[in-house]
Prior knowledge:
Strand content: 15-25%
Distance between the termini: 20 Å
Order of helices and strands: HEHEHEEHHEHEEH
Mean pLDDT: 94
Low-confidence stretches: 1-7
Radius of gyration: 17 Å
Bound molecules: flavin mononucleotide
Structural class: alpha/beta
Number of strands: 7
Amino acid sequence: MAHNGSDIAAPTLAIAYHSGYGHTATLADAVAAGATEAGADVTVIPVDRMSETDWDILDSSDGIVFGSATYMGNVSAAFQAFAEQTGRRCIDGIWRDKVAAGFTNSGGKSGDKLNTLVSLSVFAAQHHMHWVNLGLGPGWNSSAGSEHDLNRLAFFLGAGAQTDVDANSDQVHPADVRTCRHLGWRVAHVTRQLNVGRAASPAAASPGASSAPAH
Ligand SMILES: Cc1cc2nc3c(=O)[nH]c(=O)nc-3n(C[C@H](O)[C@H](O)[C@H](O)COP(=O)(O)O)c2cc1C
């Protein structure tokens, strides 16, 4: 999208997530709250209920934060169905150079959810998006630490949360909610920096890119 003065003042972000039982939805709201706090205009979009308007919002936003519950050690089938629906956009470069980041939630403390964050980041890379990492040191990793630390499960690639499988959606760990709130704030801040930079120095293709495959 064009980056005029108002875009720089308020980056537009979408939070595109899938949650089967509401836990990841709580985290999506936390990401949105952090981004809003940092001055972004935010839309939260459940990817299993996409409308045409939702696709338009994704296409026009400055950045997209992807979130998925971890199912079978990866993104959920519903998230992957959404990802596969973006194939044409990927070929056409519609999301190219947008900012991206990711979060996930699992039942196990690990639960193999690093693999989910890797999948989300690869998805973003296939769209030629700029991945923003979590930007926090590891929490709960010393005798002085506790489960109440920010980034208590010590992820770097994105935000990794854990919720007991029998918990309600309002019982997501407060430290994980704060960690996702931080991620939203960070993504909004980086997006604003990028928008300001683009106003001064527009995007350009490298000389070598002209001979590269188009997608
Ligand atoms: C089909 C299915 C597969 C799951 N696979 C994993 C898994 O690989 N690792 C894990 O730790 N938890 C796994 N879980 C538990 C969920 O990650 C956990 O319940 C999570 O909080 C669900 O998030 P949601 O409420 O946003 O759907 C699985 C749950 C389901 C329903």
